[in-house]
Specification:
Blueprint lengths: L2 H10 L1 H21 L4 E9 L16 H12 L2 H11 L5 H8 L9 H11 L1 E4 L6 E8 L2 H59 L10 H13 L4 H6 L6 H16 L8 H55 L1 H35 L6 E3 L14 H26 L6 H7 L22 H14 L1
Antiparallel strand pairs: 1-3, 1-4, 2-3
């Protein structure tokens, strides 16, 4: 079908298209007059997606999408909507009670759940793209009610989120504390078993988780290592005050010999002083050698004693290796239970602290604004939309009627129906012109027109 054929069909059935358009516009206008207006009020809450938790320090990362979806569903949950009905006093509203009593017989909901469903049905929640702001919109019968319910919804949502967090933290803390109690009982039993085994076998564990024999062996080995140091130190000549003075006197004698004669009194006095100092140095060196020899003898005797003690401890350790292995196993069990108890108790303390925190990570962005104009009916949108809808419906009906009752309205229609050559097109007679001449002239002009038509 060409554009010309389409326009010919629409023009031929223009009254049908116009009637459908006018009917649709009138119907939409009547709807705007009959249907009561609805008002939308929006309350905004900012979600702390990038704010760390005050207790755990965790930040919502890859799970932000699931978190936002959960929060949107929570706003329209019965827990929040029921709390709104309680806050606004709807449970004692006579008009709402009368509506609930005249509900259909198939509706078996109680009054509070019935009210909560009204709030849920009139609530819309969305998050603007690229933001972490939750927009809670409530549709009411008047602007003040819409604003009041929107504010109550945001506050009930924040309170419910805080209550859920505290309840969950309290339950988790109770569970961790019960587990810590069980672990503490096991830890006490394991520590008692270790102490009894040490008492029965005469083996005691040191603070570094090793038995005393092993610790003693390590100390003996460390004490026997530097035993050769006195022998090395004894071979080194000791420096004393007399040896230093002797060196100074030698220097003075050498200097005085350059200017004084060999029998000069000062030079003779220096030589006498040197002889006394040399004798003192010889006595000091003899005493040092004697002390070094005694220290060497003592060191040799001590090294032998250390070696014997090391051998004795090694023998004892080898003889009690199986007992030590069992004791180490008991000590490892005690250490494992102690670490588990510390972690469980710490987690329970963190959860108790989390249950006492009043921060949910949700920040209300002020109160909802009272709407200035109703969201429905919007005449500026409904009237043009109904005009377009009526025009489209009229055109569609016209095309359907033409499809079931096809007519030849032009050369294009004839060519589409019969594949035959077209020789000529004969135009119909012209329509008679209306005459505005009164009296006999008008009648004659009319008769003339009919004659031409014939």
């Amino acid at each position: 079908m060409s554009i010309l054929q389409f326009l010919r069909i629409i023009w031929a059935r223009r009254w049908l298209v116009g009637a459908a358009t006018v009917a649709c516009v009138l119907g939409a206008y009547l709807v705007t007059l009959i249907v009561p207006p609805r008002w939308d009020a929006t309350s905004r809450v900012m979600m702390g997606l990038l704010k760390p938790d005050p207790v755990t320090g965790l930040v919502i990362g890859n799970s932000a999408g699931a978190y936002v979806t959960t929060q949107m569903e929570l706003v329209k949950d019965y827990a929040v909507a029921g709390q709104v009905a309680d806050q606004l006093g709807w449970l004692s509203d006579p008009a709402l009670i009368d509506q609930w009593q005249h509900r259909p017989a198939s509706d078996q909901r109680d009054f509070r759940r019935w009210l909560a469903q009204i709030v849920i049905d009139r609530t819309k929640v969305k998050v603007p793209e690229g933001s972490n702001i939750l927009e809670i919109t409530y549709t009411g019968g008047n602007p003040n009610d819409a604003k009041t319910v929107a504010d109550a919804l945001s506050q009930a949502y924040i309170d419910t989120s805080l209550a859920f967090r505290r309840d969950q933290a309290t339950r988790d803390a109770d569970w961790f504390e019960s587990q810590a109690t069980k672990i503490k009982t096991q830890l006490d039993a394991a520590a008692a078993a270790q102490a009894d085994y040490e008492r029965q076998n005469g083996i005691v564990m040191a603070d570094d988780k090793t038995d005393l024999d092993t610790a003693r062996l390590r100390s003996l080995a460390a004490a026997g290592a530097p035993a050769a140091a006195p022998f090395i130190a004894s071979s080194v000549p000791l420096s004393s005050a007399a040896s230093i003075q002797l060196a100074q006197v030698d220097a003075q004698i050498a200097e005085a010999s350059k200017t004084l004669g060999p029998n000069h009194p000062e030079l003779l006095a220096l030589r006498a002083n040197r002889a006394a100092l040399a004798q003192q140095v010889a006595q000091d060196q003899a005493a040092a050698r004697a002390q070094a020899g005694a220290a060497a003898s003592a060191a040799s005797a001590g090294a032998g004693a250390v070696d014997r003690a090391v051998q004795q401890v090694k023998t004892r350790i080898l003889g009690e290796s199986d007992k030590l292995a069992h004791l180490n196993q008991l000590a490892a069990t005690v250490n494992l239970l102690k670490d588990e108890y510390d972690k469980t108790s710490g987690r329970a303390a963190d959860l108790r602290q989390e249950a006492a925190v009043a921060d949910t990570g949700l920040t209300p962005l002020g109160k909802a604004a009272t709407p200035k104009s109703p969201s429905f009916p919007n005449r500026l949108l409904i009237i043009p939309g109904s005009f377009a809808l009526g025009l489209a419906a009229g055109i569609l009906v016209a095309l359907l009627m033409e499809l079931f009752n096809r007519r030849v309205r032009g050369v294009e229609d004839l060519r589409s129906l019969a594949d035959t050559p077209l020789l000529a097109v004969i135009a119909g007679p012209p329509k008679p012109r209306r005459s505005w001449v009164r009296g006999p002239r008008r009648r004659l002009a009319g008769e003339g027109g009919r004659a031409v038509a014939t």
